[in-house]
Amino acid sequence: MRRVKHRIVSRIRKIEPRGLQSTIMIAFSLVSFFIMLVLGIVLYLRFSTLAREETIRSTQKVMEQAGENLEDYLVGMRRISDAIYYNVIKESDFANQDLAVQRGMNLLYEANRDNLRTIAVYNHYGSLMAAEPVALQKEDPNVSRQDWFVRAMGEMENMHFSTPHIQNLFDDSSFRYYWVISLSRAIEITVNGVPQPGVLLVDMDYSSVSRVMKQINTQNNGQYYYLCDRNGEIIYHPRQIQINRGLARENSVTAAKHKEGIYEDSFNGARRKLVVNNISYTGWRLVGVIPYTAFTRGMINIRYFIGIIMLLMAMMLSVVNRVVAVRISRPIMRLNDSVMEYEAGEKPEIYIGGSIEIRHLGYSIQKSYEQIDMLMRKIVQEQTERRKSELDALQSQINPHFLYNTLDSITWMIEGERNEEAAFMISQLAKLFRISLSKGRTVISVKEELQHAESYMNIQKVRYRDAFAVTFDVEPEIESFCTVKLVLQPLLENAINYGVCGMEDCGEIRVTGRRQDGRVVLSVEDNGMGMSEEEVRLLLTDDKRVHKRGSGVGLVNVNNRIRLLFGESYGLEIASEPDEGTRVSVCIPAVAYTEENRERLEQGHRYYDEQ
Amino acid sequence: MNSKKTFILIELTLAALLALLVSFMLKEKSGKERQRVSVIVRNSEDDQWTSFKYGLRMAAEDEEVEAYVVSTAAELSAAEVEQLAAQEAQNGAEALLVQPVAGVTAEALQKRTKIPVLLVGGDRSRETELPSTGPDNRAMGRDLARALLEDYAGNLDGKTLGLVWTRGEAEAAEARRSGFEELLAEEGAKGTVAFAVSGADDLTEQPRVNIVVAFDDGSLIAAGACAAANDLHGAVLYGIGSSARAVYYLDTGAARCLIVPDGFLMGYQSLTEVAEKVRNPLRQMKGTAVQHVVMRRGTLFTKENQEMLYTMSQ
Hints:
The structure holds two protein chains of two kinds. Chain A is of the alpha+beta class.
């Protein structure tokens, strides 16, 4: 259980967040689908209830109409029977007025021959007294044992309707047998003035009844109507023969027990609605049977209809949902796009549009970005200024140091009355300062830097009484590139102080200038005592362990200045071997010395920004 | 997949479902076309088929198929039956009910029609590859003989018999006659068969006999008409028939006993069987034997007989 829960939770977590438009669309669609589903079910239930009620109502109407037709027909038959009895039989004596009886019966028969098969009068022995149409009675039809005769004689006060049967009284030369319903009643006939009991038989054509029933049995949805008597004996059923042959079944006995109304019924495992109507005077029941499958069959088209409506609504709602989702999400998405472009480094206009809230958001973001831009510019400016001031501070650290040494040398010369040398020193110092000042510039040409180094070395040589030799070996092409001013002087100073100072006559300092792999390399090389590898490694750091000779400020300053101006990939490179000498190289990019380049470098644009 | 593609896909799916539902609805409204079953029997307009056709009609209503009875002549050859069957299959019949005719083989019918065929009204005792529904002709013959022996107390000594049947009904009549003679032989009745003819148009030309036995409806009606006209010279008529006219001759005394096959049941059951086969082609069709009743004048109008007579009068 915990595993399953864990899996579900991890799967949910794995679901990637969707876009705003999809989320809105899915949410709207789910809500729409749910509403449509509920609506569809409610509609279907409502429709099906209405359809059921309508089916039952129409069944009742049909049955009422059919019942009325049957009743009219049966009342007509009763009237014929009454007319024959009261107007013909009661008015005549069969002994001497048989022709009048025959004529009267003939008139009534001809007027109703479409619905009548036979009219016959029998005495109480079952002997034929009169019949219409006049036909030959079959030999020994055994009338007195026939059901209609027995019932008429048994209940003399009533008229009796039989169940359908074959009329087997008269010979029909057309070889046909007719299906009839017999209306029989006990009568009083007069023979030779003597009244005696008899039976009047009116055989109604069964086809008249079956025609009425067939007219209403036209549905092909399983619904049907049948007619039975009060005992459940079937008078008409659309599947009458099948029922009689045992091929079908009907629970007419149960239906016959019902009064008029609508009943639930379960028969042969199927649920049905029974609508029962009584037919007056006869005790017959007209039964309408509506299987529940008929309701379902009638609902198929409604199901399709509701399905079509639902699908159409789903299509329309999808369109509406999409339009709404797009309308809601488009301003947000456009705002998001412009923010993403901004984040990618472009500088688009921040989208401002859509609803008030989105507009407000757009305005806020735009204002934020403007403020960020302004702050960035301010930071850059401040940083440039800070670097410049750092540079200035570094340079200012050198100048007093150098000036102190030089003035010390001049003082020493003047005290030794070496005035010419002192004058030379002062003139060299003047050159030196002219370049040092350089109208406040920090970037000068390599040529000027070399000139500055030469002046410096001239001063130092005088000071050290030519205790060492200096050579300059510089490729002329590098003279036109940019460099930070005063980078060679500290190197030369170190070469003198810590390289060749203690040596007697054999000290050599060599200044070289080369262009290597797009870089300008200015080296100061001495053949002094050199340094160990560890000392070299720690020379450009702030580690105090290596600065045994001097403060070390010179090299660190130079290195920092170069890196501040040209970037971290440039600076000093030191190579030294104990007792062999030291070479310190200034590595700077080969940037042509122009006024424009100079200004850009001085404004803090790094060398790599130029590439 | 972006939301636009998803939207288009959803709309297309919904449109396809909509089209499907509309087509279903239209199909439902236009109504299902009823499958057609054709029926080929000899002399199809004859009264002997009335109850059979009524059975077909009732079964057609119950099974919701269309039963079409092909109009045929009194006599049919095997070639004509095969041709009619092929023609009906071509005209859209989904199944056939065919009265067997001498010479018609199941193979030929199947080959020419390629639709289910059920035999009706033939001799069920004869072995055939096709299922057959109809009365048990041999049993009817035996019951006819039994009725005759009942009337004569089992003794036909000195009685002469004339046996008749219609030419076209040879197959069924042969089985009935065989059953009839079989029972007489079993019971040891020693009547003399004076004549045994098929297609006798005028019985008055046949030798005088005491008893005429008709083995089918056509010959029974012919003999009944002779008897009604007092042309049988006092011969008593027994027979097998299935028309209202045959019953009429029994009713009027022209015939003494009548064996009536249940034509309604034959029509109903045969059509129900093929309709089920059409609905479910994998189903194996089965033939069934339909009942027959022995009618006598005194019991002609019992409830059961009235029902049978009702089907003959439709």
